[in-house]
Amino acid sequence: MITKPTLFLDEKQCRKNIETMCSKAKKSNVDFRPHFKTHQSQEIGSWFKEFGIDKITVSSLEMARYFAEDWNDITVAFPVNILEIETINSLAQNIELNLLVESRESITALESSLKHRVGAFIKIDTGYHRTGVDPNQIAEIDELARMIAESEMTEFKGFLAHAGHSYKCRSKEEIRVVHKQSTEAIVTLAEHFSNKYSDLTVSIGDTPTCSVADDFSMVDEIRPGNFVFYDLAQHQIGACEINQIAAAMACPIVAIHKARNEIVIYGGGVHFSKECLEEEKHGAVYGQVVEKKETGWGDPTPDMYIKSLSQEHGIIATPESEISKYKVGDCVHVLPVHSCMTANLMKSYKTTDGKTISRL
Amino acid sequence: MITKPTLFLDEKQCRKNIETMCSKAKKSNVDFRPHFKTHQSQEIGSWFKEFGIDKITVSSLEMARYFAEDWNDITVAFPVNILEIETINSLAQNIELNLLVESRESITALESSLKHRVGAFIKIDTGYHRTGVDPNQIAEIDELARMIAESEMTEFKGFLAHAGHSYKCRSKEEIRVVHKQSTEAIVTLAEHFSNKYSDLTVSIGDTPTCSVADDFSMVDEIRPGNFVFYDLAQHQIGACEINQIAAAMACPIVAIHKARNEIVIYGGGVHFSKECLEEEKHGAVYGQVVEKKETGWGDPTPDMYIKSLSQEHGIIATPESEISKYKVGDCVHVLPVHSCMTANLMKSYKTTDGKTISRL
Fold this sequence. Notes:
homodimer
């Protein structure tokens, strides 16, 4: 029985999402190195092995350490934090560890303190402008590559980009434009260096472009992560259908305010995170209520969504025609806006079959 | 040595914040039942005992269970979640437990499944409109009070409000207006029932009004919580001075982009939460950089703030005059926007004296 906010997982849908992405990678003949920052779970990670996946991406050394129990080829897709050199060394002793560098300082620091050889990718900024080197700074990239290649502690692996500007898209067409532009930028760069360095890997990966684009044959590796669950944000972007979302929070109803058509749930910012969508019709949306089924959930209930969140409370705007169907002590199922942030807040998952799945 | 995002606590300032609020309560001759949802730490909780505090507020039964090891009078300031009746019964067996009710259904459910007597407050909506009963619904409140009082399992304790609309204020003057309006609403209600029920407690409490107002003598109890750390949101509201903020996140610098005056830190939405302020000058602000000191931190560095966050990355807008002072591998200290949400994401605190403080 559900007694408090519980993050449910539709295992079947989740496995389907994994399978679809695996097939896509295979069709383009590229390596698939899924990002595990969304689920952060060894058990969910193991589902990827059934499709032959043997290397992964994470976003912190803490995650790398957790997953190193099961995986021996891990890329930490985050600019290397040289202060964590001890963790880096202990990981590099046991697994194939790839790090991201984007400055001479980082490479020098690694060179002087690494005890075991690691792979190094140069992080390229293909338009998101969060971090990474501009692909037009050829002289700088040349110098970084030289430093990596000449060091005995680092192996120059190639170029890596995250086209996070795809998150600003609102249609498949826009996503394809970002994919084309971003991929061309990094591929052009890699071609420039292909005479100097052989076997460079070009790695890209964000859920919107990897979900919508069909052809990845220009690159060597894709690294999407969020697709494992998807969420309302991906749906708004145009990256998934609403029924591909594989995670939903079950929340107890604690109060009902018929006069203003609102339901109060136990389920707040400490469960969902305060990430929200701006919707034309409803304004800020923090979650979408879906129909509850015998096991799991069904379609969205139109115009029934979380309109605000505080630490433990969620306020659900509810159509007048719906509100009488609910009473205090019932549970509602809510699709999250950003499944990575939501999963990170919850200690475990419950599958719709009743299994508990732990995470980091 | 700091190697990854670490939430620092200025214990001295934190104790000062506690002392100030204790003195205020004493001066108005009201009970102080601090809300522990912000720090969620037994050790920080113990600092309150030094000021004679012997009862507390929490926002979930999970927190009540955690704090019940040290405290035997706890109010769960959240509309009772009747699905957690087992936890309620196990707590009520051992401590004085107060619950919030606001509907007949809840009271009936409690009546039929409580095994031990609990205190019950009627939750009153004094203008925030998150939840609670409108104080003008006298007939409904009368009926709720009757049901509580007649049940053998519940003791009618009084009325409780949270003037959360104070969070929309932007000056001390506005906060005082909310305090006056909200207090008058609940006090008038309590007076109406004072002939029928003796010894009713009127409980209010939110950090803005409790920080700014001076006189609480009209009520019986105050329950602020956030004041223990304060944060940028409280500062924007007008509830604290910037140097009263007792928590700051230390974050490693992983990349520097001089061309656009940005510093990339290891410190993202999974550390700070994605709560942000809207500032006239800077737009969205997710954290404010402060000067680093030998121990702890000093004043804010003007115009140096987190402008965006993703899961693990933070992007700090940095004045041109400042950026050359920083290098990869340094740490910056950042004041959080909402300390409750930030503390909830971190597993422990580090005091500026080097002590580790655990939490729930």
